[in-house]
Fold this protein.
Amino acid sequence: MFSLARSIRQILVAAFVLVLWAPASPAHSADKTTSTVPLPPMVGLYYSAEELTATRAMINAQPWRAGMRDYMTAKADEWMALSDDEIRSLLPKPGSLFSYGQNGCPKCKARWKPFGAETCSLDRPGKTICPKCETVFPDPDPASPYHDTGKGVMIDGKRYYLTAVWNAFVVNSMYSAQGPDGTGSSVLALSYALTGNEAYARKAIVMMDALATLQPSTRGPRDFDYDEDQTKDKGRFHLLTSIVHRAQAPMARNIDLVGNHPMMQTDSPTNPGTKIGENIRLGLFEDYLWNNFDVREGRLSTLHNHEADSVRGMIATGLLFGNADYIRWGIASLDALLENTVDRDGMYYETSMGYTIFTRSVFLDMAEMLANYRPEKYAGYPGDFPPARNFMDHPKLQKLIVDNTDMNFTGRRVSLGNSHGDNAIITKPAASFNITQFLEIARLGFYTTDKALKKRTDAMLQAGADPAPPKAPVAPWWWLMKNPNPIPKKTGNPDEFNMFGDGRFFSTKGMAGFQFGDWPDKRGIIVRGGPNLPHAQDDNLGLNLFDLGRELCAELGYGTFDTPLHKGWSTRAVAHCIVTVDGDAAMDGYFKKTPGSNWRSFLNGDVVKYMDADGRLQFDPEKLPVEKFRRRIVTVVVDEANSYYIDLFDVKGGSFRDYSFHAPWNDKLLTAALTMEGIDPKPVKGAWTAAGLSPEFRDASWNAPGRSWGERVGNAETITPVDPPDDAGGYGWMPPGRGYGFLYNLRGAKTAKPWSATWALEGSDDAHLRVGFFPTNEMGAYAANAPDLLGAHLYNFILARDEGSSESRFLTVIEPYRKQRTVRRIEVLRNDKRGPVALKIELTNGATDLLLLGENAGTEEVLKVSNKKSVSAAAEMAFVRFDSNGDPVHASMMRGRKLAVDGVELLKTPATPSTNVASVDLAKGTFKTGKVDLPGKVSKPDATDGELAGSPGWLLEKTHIQGGIAKTFCPEVVLSGEGYPVDVTMEIDGSESGGNITLSKDGTITVDAKSVALQQFRVDTVSDDGLTSLTIPLPLAYVHSKSTHALDGHHIADSEGKLVGRITATPHILAIRTTPETLLEKDKLYWVMDFVEGHRVDFPLAATWDLFGQAGNDGP
């Protein structure tokens, strides 16, 4: 491998010794004198010598900079107070164990924060003190159950790590992936860079050297290894697997800052016979570089966030120590990561938004290190160094950061999949971007060469700037070190850059996000229907409802992967607002493997918002044939503060189907927070848990009071033991019952009549959530209690169970309200299992809404209902609002032909116009259609080139009729091809600024899809039987050892866009099967197309009518 003693380092060290040491600053830590002498970093991983000099020159020019320096040096001085030997003696002995402390206190069972954050202190070496019971661990008495010799103590079948928590604490204090800028190694290195005081550098090197000698003897945190020998390799120190690489990035920065200090070339006092610099390279970097993921030769295996972290470790190591191969492999790997994990909307592929936020930071970190890379820096190093590449100009990284910086929905992080939920009440937007968002925008803008993008990032920084001066510890450290310019003055609102805006559809993710209203009444729904990918939960087409300042569907969230609570409860379908078929008996794993749902409609109107999707493809037809899994949700805006939501869920398949719903926990009322009307709920014989409704689990020992999984939630998301014992296990074990065993205290009845459940919500605003159920036949109506992940809070769940036949319809009306309901009366005018639905909803403001939901507009089913006036419609969705006098004031229609009131047509549209894809441009990410006959001026032969303004979607026609204005528009485009598993649905925009539709004179349409391909791959080998192995994974195609079938049937194109074959199956993330005529060449790059020439293109039409003076319609 490569020594630090290379020519560039030798030259810089010589300059360092001759120039810096001559006018040396005092070498004691209290000296805050800022040196103006250049302090060249090893390679300039993040900061150049010139930038660091400019940073020090600006320290006293802006008060916030001096304040941050003083904060940093004060932290560093705490370490400077320790001698070198004292720092070394703090560290545990080689071979010691480390622990998060997941199981908490063995005495009082209190939960502990990870890594001794509240239980350990440097002034109490080796001791862990419970903050609740104040017991000091470990007990020195060998006879004590709390006497820990280092491997933990076993109490009641659970291992508690006491000494290992201290070990984690002390290393985490020096070297960490969580809050790395506050660790000892960071504050010392950064203080050196900010002041030039070489004493800080020496102390940092002492610490790094000691850590480097210790690391190879460790095996990662033991919380996730239940083997008695405690030897499984789970990482290093307290860092679990790829988190080792997460910590390497800030450590690489620190070494870069101090690496030219002559002390790096002296003998290591902790590892005799090795120079300190070499010891650091071997012990902190090369030691674990390939253990978790071996990404050498650019051979990737998953592309998920763990592997991205591994690539970051390789890039940091290669750049810091001059390894040309690592750099070359890293560049190729980052390119593959961006191309195959970021879609046309700039969305990262893993389901959880939390992992999007994290992985975005990893990509940006790699891009910044490579943006500072220049081959000429490594003159004299062996190897062929690749050309520099600026990934800050990569379109997908730009979209990931700029288009989707603010991923909040109604002011909070979207808790899809493995992400954290909350019980907060949010009624105002954030005043600024958080520090991570702000610096990600700043870093992209700093390095990009795209002037238009730079202008946008400047505007985002001004809008997202914190109006208060920066203040440590939460402060823009990157800006301090890199950018001598002042922080921009705040001149806007970060809400303007929210990725959901006023509603948005995400194509590849198959996700509808209807966000609407103004603060404090911002509200909306999210429904995800794309493929279930890493960190998903089993909630495809699950409802996420946000209203009353709350996350009303109250996602249970996620703490630690693969715990009994994660595996057996929070990830299960029944834990979400969705329909579960046959209790999920046919499903194994964390979630169903699916190519995604087919989206028919996405309408984002001012009064009515509508979605229609079918997710039947998530069910394995060999295990559980499901012919229909169609969810239609209508959001109806009543006024600026109130809405109601109609949920129509049609399912065909299985022997029983459960519609589950729950609201946020309310600790003040607990079980009494839920009231039920229309039924008299009683305990269910043989079913203490919801699992007991099924004969499979009726006699289970845990289907009993006090023994259910939901009543036994302990620390670390585990199940506490009982006497007599059952088969409860630890990490990695899944409690039987597929989530139903966590729903306890079951009570209910069967009914064919309407019934409702109302939750009183926690808070002082007298908020409630009511769900009305309107069954088509006799169903079970049940309530049950359920725990959160730590057993700290209690949820009230509702189940509506339909069994017997194979077909169910669940019709609910969801009403969030404060103090009193907005809805006065609900009347079901028509509803059966297969036909149309008609609802009459009377509002307390005197208005009346009529909603009509047809099965398919193509059947020409005409719905006729009567209010004071008769309404008829042929549509999949039609809506009319009447005022208190019985006169229509608004109408909406989607995928319909006509809507009339008292025989007078308000809305009329043709059947869905369609054409075919005429051509696809792989390089530009666009496609062109054949001629299409659209209504309005678009269809006129003298239509001019260019875009037509309109909102929502693409405005096609506007006419005056019956005292109002009728608008016809196209909100989406749907592409379908024979053999493709799901259709491609894209939201379209006809606005002049930002539109993606261009109409030509000949009636053809060009759509800027941003990308027309889903994935890229490079061929490794091609076998005679049609199996091709790849060197770049296809993460959309394969997850958790099974195919999603998302790419099955898709065509393959070469880099010029020429079609060369077709995929028939994806048996592995690194393998495809193809049709016999497919021609692929080894080492060549190919693209999996999302659609190709000949695909059918549908333009579903929507229409609205507003009486003059309504909905902002001021008349002609």
Observations:
- The chain has 18 helices and 54 strands.
- Confidence is low (pLDDT under 50) at residues 1-30, 938-951.
